[in-house]
């Protein structure tokens, strides 16, 4: 058992005691444990468990790179991100030996700093045999131990520096208190350990290995979602009950907010308020933060609840700023760039554990952002090998690894927010999205929403945008709207909704979804064409369900209503009108996203091939088995039907 003690309370009681506790933690904590056991013995005489004191919340936190030899054997508090967790290791605490001659069992021998002192002779008076003792494992006492690797957070890294790491030892109840990707604050004792020159030699090196013996761990960075005050490291009931009143008041305020009729618009204005307009894009990003419900059927089929969004547009349209804002706000958010990301860096890679020498899997960006949002900038500049790893992640939400003797499937239940620039720097409206950014259709179809953010020249729009940007640099900026939620309230609102609100489709909403989907499909029936245009696919109705559930969560509603479905259709159509519109016909054609070629373009190509085939067959019947390419091109060049290069590549069979 353990008791958490706030270091600020120790300082308020006796500053001198606090100073001794930080400088000589081993001695002072041992005294704390003795006093605590005496108090417990007076209140509960039959209580036999050992209670350990865990100190947290030191007055000052030290930067990880500032740890130096003067801090050894002192209590320190550091912040960072967990990048690796080892498996649980059994650590020997008490050893029991048995004599091979007479079978006598020795008294338990305490382990001192990893050293086990084996008795040289049997302790039985009648035996006294020398070098006859052997370790009995099933009578020894073991404790759980885990080694985690802590890395500096990006805001603590100086200009031009690389992140520093430190090993942290977790014991007993602290094991598995954190997982890779968590940002934590650790209170512990900074210690040094000697390193032997060889495994069979007693000589040690002059350079010591340092690590932190963890006393307490808690999550930090309250500006992110899904953050709790502690990581369930046995906080006392008294400390929990003292916070119940405050938490209840906070929840009541959030529920009052959810009942406001304009809560949807208010949340939209509160998301990235420094970015001007882009309201529909912000609404889509809000849906991504709230998310839908993941569905697991008894048959084993899984349907993801996370929403994937792609932002495409001209340079200077705030795409990267939106990504940075979502990264800072989202739970377990990871920000990476397409140019600097490899396939293994995104998923997982095999490395050798320096502690045990075993081959282990290191988590990549997508695995570290499990149950969060992975923001990928410069998506169009990512290598094809790295981009191919996203297919499984964005639909099945797993990462399958089979390398170096390790076969595993890792969870990557993450929402992907990607940002891409056109290949020619400026978006060409005469080309499709796929032709502009050169992404494979199989990957593009996995995005629920694709937004085009274009820089269009308009005097009134430009003037309002310039005023907004200039106002951000005033000494007295423009007064922020009263109806904008502050960041902490927005974080609490989304966190509560994701954790406690799980809406289900009502009968009316389900019928509206079916009716709307059929209506979208009916738009593809063109009376003048023999072929049907695909205006919606099964993936679109799954996207609509996820968007509807996210919109219901914004109102703290357990039931998805018709108005949620209507708004989901509107959001999807806004995105599709921008990204999936065939400019030749002015209609939505999902073939642009699914295959990269619109139905009308495919029809024109088929007509061209048929016309050329008829022409060639007619000419060859009159002029013989061969004809010049110029004769084939001439009829079409005269009426400007098609570029001559197109004729050269058209298949005639």
UniProtKB/TrEMBL annotation:
Q: List, alphabetically, the GO terms of the cellular component aspect.
A: MCM complex; THO complex
Region of interest called Disordered, as start-end residue ranges on this chain? 228-247
Query: Which terms under GO biological process does the entry name?
Result: DNA strand elongation involved in DNA replication; double-strand break repair via break-induced replication; mitotic DNA replication initiation
Superkingdom, taxonomy of origin: Eukaryota
Q: What is its EC number?
A: 3.6.4.12
Query: What's the catalysed reaction?
Result: ATP + H2O = ADP + phosphate + H(+)
Chain ranges passing through the membrane = none
Tell me one GO molecular function of this protein: single-stranded DNA helicase activity
Q: If you read the UniProt record, what top EC class would you report for this enzyme, in one word?
A: hydrolase
Q: Which UniProt keywords apply?
A: ATP-binding, DNA replication, DNA-binding, Helicase, Hydrolase, Nucleotide-binding, Nucleus
Q: What is its main location?
A: nucleus
Question: Would the keyword Transmembrane be found if you checked this record's keyword annotation?
Answer: no
Q: Name one Pfam family in it.
A: MCM_OB
Q: Which residue ranges does the record assign to the MCM C-terminal AAA(+) ATPase domain?
A: 263-469
Q: Which family does it belong to?
A: Belongs to the MCM family.
State how it assembles.
Answer: Component of the minichromosome maintenance (MCM) complex, a heterotetramer composed of MCM2, MCM3, MCM4, MCM5, MCM6 and MCM7.
Cited function: Acts as component of the MCM2-7 complex (MCM complex) which is the replicative helicase essential for 'once per cell cycle' DNA replication initiation and elongation in eukaryotic cells. The active ATPase sites in the MCM2-7 ring are formed through the interaction surfaces of two neighboring subunits such that a critical structure of a conserved arginine finger motif is provided in trans relative to the ATP-binding site of the Walker A box of the adjacent subunit. The six ATPase active sites, however, are likely to contribute differentially to the complex helicase activity.
Task: Please identify the protein, giving its name as recorded.
Answer: DNA replication licensing factor MCM4
The organism encoding this protein is Aegilops tauschii subsp. strangulata
Taxonomic lineage is: Eukaryota, Viridiplantae, Streptophyta, Embryophyta, Tracheophyta
């Amino acid at each position: 058992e353990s008791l958490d003690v706030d270091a600020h309370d120790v300082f308020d009681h006796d500053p001198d005691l606090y100073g001794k506790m930080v400088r000589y933690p081993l001695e002072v904590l041992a005294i704390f444990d003795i006093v605590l056991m005496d108090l417990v013995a007076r209140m509960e005489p039959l209580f036999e468990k050992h209670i350990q004191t865990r100190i947290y919340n030191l007055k000052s936190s030290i930067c990880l790179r500032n740890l130096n030899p003067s801090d050894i054997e002192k209590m320190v508090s550091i912040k960072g991100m967990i990048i690796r967790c080892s498996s649980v290791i059994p650590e020997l605490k008490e050893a029991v030996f048995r004599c091979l001659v007479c079978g006598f069992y020795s008294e338990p021998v305490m382990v001192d700093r990893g050293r086990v002192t084996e008795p040289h002779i049997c302790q039985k008076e009648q035996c006294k045999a020398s070098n006859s003792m052997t370790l009995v494992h099933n009578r020894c006492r073991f404790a759980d131990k885990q080694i985690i690797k802590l890395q500096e957070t990006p805001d603590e890294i100086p200009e031009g520096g690389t992140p520093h790491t430190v090993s942290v030892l977790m014991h007993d109840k602290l094991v598995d208190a954190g997982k890779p990707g968590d940002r934590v604050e650790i209170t512990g004792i900074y210690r040094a350990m000697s390193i032997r020159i060889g495994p069979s030699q007693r000589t040690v090196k002059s350079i010591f290995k340092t690590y932190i013996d963890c006393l307490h761990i808690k999550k930090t960075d309250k500006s992110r979602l899904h953050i709790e005050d502690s990581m369930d490291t046995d906080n006392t009931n008294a400390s929990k009950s003292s916070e119940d009143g405050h938490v209840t008041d906070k929840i009541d305020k959030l529920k009052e907010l959810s009942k406001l009729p304009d809560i949807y618009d208010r949340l939209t204005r509160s998301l990235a308020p420094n970015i001007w307009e882009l309201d529909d894009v912000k609404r889509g990003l809000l849906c991504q933060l709230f998310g839908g419900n993941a569905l697991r059927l008894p048959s084993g089929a899984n349907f993801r609840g996370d929403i994937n969004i792609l932002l495409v547009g001209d340079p200077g349209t705030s795409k990267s700023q939106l990504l940075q804002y979502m990264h800072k706000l989202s739970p377990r958010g990871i920000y990476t760039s397409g140019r600097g990301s490899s396939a293994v860096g995104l998923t997982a890679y095999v490395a050798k554990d320096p502690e045990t020498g075993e081959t282990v899997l290191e988590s990549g960006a997508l695995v570290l952002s499990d149950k969060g949002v992975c923001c990928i900038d410069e998506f169009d500049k990512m290598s094809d090998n790295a981009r191919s790893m996203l297919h499984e992640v964005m639909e099945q939400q797993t990462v399958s690894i089979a390398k170096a003797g390790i076969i595993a499937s890792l969870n990557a239940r993450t929402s992907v927010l990607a940002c891409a620039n056109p290949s020619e720097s400026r978006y060409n409206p005469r080309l499709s999205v796929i032709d502009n950014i050169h992404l494979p259709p199989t990957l593009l179809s996995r995005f629920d929403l694709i937004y085009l953010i274009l820089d269009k020249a308009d005097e009134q729009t430009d003037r309002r945008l310039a005023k907004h940007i200039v106002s951000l640099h005033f000494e007295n900026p423009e007064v922020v709207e009263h109806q904008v939620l502050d960041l902490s309230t927005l974080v609490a609102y989304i966190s509560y909704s994701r954790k406690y609100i799980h809406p289900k489709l009502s009968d009316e909403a389900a019928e509206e979804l079916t009716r709307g989907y059929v209506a979208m499909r009916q738009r593809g029936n063109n009376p003048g064409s023999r072929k049907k245009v695909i205006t919606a696919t099964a993936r679109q109705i799954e996207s609509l369900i996820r968007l509807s559930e996210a919109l219901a969560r914004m109102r703290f509603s357990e039931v998805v209503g018709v108005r949620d479905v209507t708004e989901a259709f509107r959001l999807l159509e806004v995105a599709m009108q921008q990204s999936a519109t065939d400019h030749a016909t002015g209609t939505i054609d999902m073939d642009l996203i699914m295959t990269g070629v619109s139905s009308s373009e495919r029809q024109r190509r088929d007509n061209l091939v048929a016309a050329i085939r008829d022409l060639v067959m007619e000419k060859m019947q009159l002029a013989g088995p061969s004809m010049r390419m110029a004769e084939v091109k001439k009829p079409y060049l005269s009426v400007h039907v098609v570029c001559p290069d197109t004729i050269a590549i058209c298949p005639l069979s």
